[in-house]
């Protein structure tokens, strides 16, 4: 599913409320707003069949990834939490199916812009869910890539 960037103006109180809700749910405000709008479009049945399936799968996958990351780091922080979540997505038939439904193709597909976006979103969700920060070396953010291989 292609994405578009939107700029909206919100009353300050609404912006603060969204920021507070996102913090309470351990989410980025933009991710919370995207989920709220996606859920509204699903509720109104405003999407086609394929888009409905992708939107539902993405929302469910993000919820499960967030919960899994929090469970992994419940007692002690694991610096490999992102890798562990992606490995579990690969291993679990339920999660892999959600992932492939969300990206609209097989998990090992290359050149899929939706896959790249969802991978970035999942990384961000995992980081925020466990109170993590991006790893840096010499002041530069380290990019970690995780591949989904064929089962």
Task: Describe this structure as you would to a colleague.
By secondary structure, this protein is mainly α. It has a domain at 50-141. Helices cover 60% and strands 3% of the residues. It contains six helices and two strands, in the order ααααααββ. The protein has helices at residues 12-24, 29-43, 49-72, 81-91, 93-103, 113-129, and strands at 136-137, 140-141. It has a two-stranded antiparallel sheet. The longest helix has 24 residues, at 49-72. It is globular, with a radius of gyration of 16 Å. The two termini are 24 Å apart.
| Termini separation | 24 Å
* CA-based gyration radius: 16 Å
Helix content: 55-70%
Could you spell the SSE succession in H and E letters?
HHHHHHEE
Write the layout of secondary structure elements.
Layout: H1 12-24, H2 29-43, H3 49-72, H4 81-91, H5 93-103, H6 113-129, E1 136-137, E2 140-141
Antiparallel strand pairs: 1-2
Helix pairs in contact: 1-2, 2-3, 3-4, 3-5, 3-6, 4-5
Descriptive keywords:
151 residues, mainly alpha
């Amino acid at each position: 599913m292609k994405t578009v960037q939107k700029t909206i103006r919100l009353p300050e109180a609404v912006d603060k409320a969204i920021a507070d809700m996102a913090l309470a749910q351990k989410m980025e405000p933009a991710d919370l707003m995207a989920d709220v709008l996606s859920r509204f479009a699903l509720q109104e049945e405003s999407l086609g069949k394929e888009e409905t399936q992708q939107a539902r799968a993405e929302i469910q996958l993000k919820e499960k990834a967030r919960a899994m990351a929090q469970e992994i780091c419940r007692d002690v922080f694991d610096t490999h939490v992102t890798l562990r979540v992606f490995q579990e997505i690969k291993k679990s038939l339920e999660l892999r199916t959600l992932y492939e439904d969300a990206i609209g193709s097989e998990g090992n597909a290359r050149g899929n812009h939706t896959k790249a976006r969802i991978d970035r979103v999942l990384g961000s969700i995992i980081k925020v869910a466990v109170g993590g920060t991006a790893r840096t070396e010499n002041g530069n953010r380290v990019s970690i890539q995780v591949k989904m291989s064929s089962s």
